[in-house]
Amino acid sequence: MADKNEKSNNFNMPILAVAPMMDWTDRHCRFFHRQMSAQALLYTEMVTAPALVRGGALHLLGHDPQEHPVALQLGGSDPAELAQATRLGWDAGYTEVNLNCGCPSDRVQSGSFGAVLMERPAHVAKICAAMSAASPAEVTVKCRIGVDDQTPGEILPRFLSAIRAVGVRRVTIHARKAWLQGLSPKENRDIPPLDYALVAAMKAEFPDLHISVNGGVEDLDAASGFLGMGLNGVMVGRAAYHRPWDILGRADSRIFGQPDPALNRAEVVARMQPYIERQMGQGLRLAQITRHMLGLFAGQPGARQWRRVLSENAHKPGAGPELLDTALAAVSQTA
């Protein structure tokens, strides 16, 4: 468990984060990512406050202490309920709790949270104040630059001013507007144009905020470029999931000036095997972990064989950690 007497990240330190992604960044994915970077900030999938407070789904807060630094992302719109959920997150070991103000899915909209909260800056400020009062956990926000017909250059500074006024100091901005009507969640990740210049302008306008940029970041060169232009952090989404080694394998040395925990992809596989043995001993199926590892060799000779061995066999009865050795051997024969 992280030291609760410290913030999850020093305010002045750069951040390279892996975005919260539904159905992807579960605890097994996060443990896998941690084998490649000791420094990257990881996020849970979005957990709804009603699920925790009304549904008692505390298992959604489960994580391995080795995942830290890891932040809990919450979805919701009721200040009191989000305050309770924040406290539950703190009690479970999370030192950062992030409020989702960026997800555009219909399910999220129907609950009046996610990106739709961009339309209610004052209400978001009320939520953040309640969350901050509920526990010592640092409350952060992930948002869009605006939604629908809002003018981003007008709404985004108003939104940031509102949450700053109640003590929020770290914000991740997805540099795309969200269209709540007319675009699917998938289309909202690609179609609205990126406006990195606006995010950079917000850093200039709010120098006391720790601002990270999200959206369209494909490699460490791009991440380094954003840090070089004065932003405090970078959040990477799909690229980190589909090409984890490319994003995380050298992140600690390039971004943080620290030693990388694994020399190569094969060492990552070796580091995962004891974890897989422990989890399978508790009843987990191999495929529940290896599904997150399919992209480990992306772009390398043998990548197709690696994916094929795991995807075709990990779900079979009796499949165990030794399947990773078989998949690794298939890579070695091709390389």
Strands, count: 9
Percent helix: 40-55%
- CATH fold call of the largest domain: TIM Barrel
Low-confidence stretches: 1-9
Query: What's the name of the CATH homologous superfamily of the largest domain?
Result: Aldolase class I
Largest sheet: 8 strands, parallel, barrel
Q: What is the CA–CA distance across the termini?
A: 39 Å
The spatial strand order of the largest sheet comes to 1-2-4-5-6-7-8-9
Q: For the CA atoms, what is the radius of gyration?
A: 20 Å
**What is the molecular shape?**
globular
Derived from helix and strand composition plus strand pairing, the structural class reads alpha/beta
* CATH top level assignment of the largest domain: Alpha Beta
**Mean pLDDT across all residues, rounded?**
93
What would you say the CATH architecture of the largest domain is? Alpha-Beta Barrel
What is the helix tally? 16
Which descriptors apply to this entry?
alpha/beta, TIM Barrel, 9 strands, 2 domains, Four Helix Bundle (Hemerythrin (Met), subunit A)
Describe this structure in words.
The chain has helices at 27-34, 49-53, 79-91, 106-110, 121-134, 152-164, 185-188, 196-205, 220-228, 238-242, 244-248, 251-255, 265-281, 287-290, 303-313, 322-334; strands spanning 15-18, 41-43, 47-48, 70-75, 96-101, 138-144, 170-174, 210-214, 233-236. Helix 5 runs parallel beside helix 6 and helix 15 (303-313) packs antiparallel against helix 16 (322-334). It folds into two domains: 15-255, Aldolase class I (TIM Barrel); 265-334, Up-down Bundle (Four Helix Bundle (Hemerythrin (Met), subunit A)). The protein is globular and about 55 Å long. It is α/β, with parallel strands linked by helices and 335 residues long. It has 16 helices and nine strands. An eight-stranded parallel beta barrel has the order 1-2-4-5-6-7-8-9, surrounded by five helices.
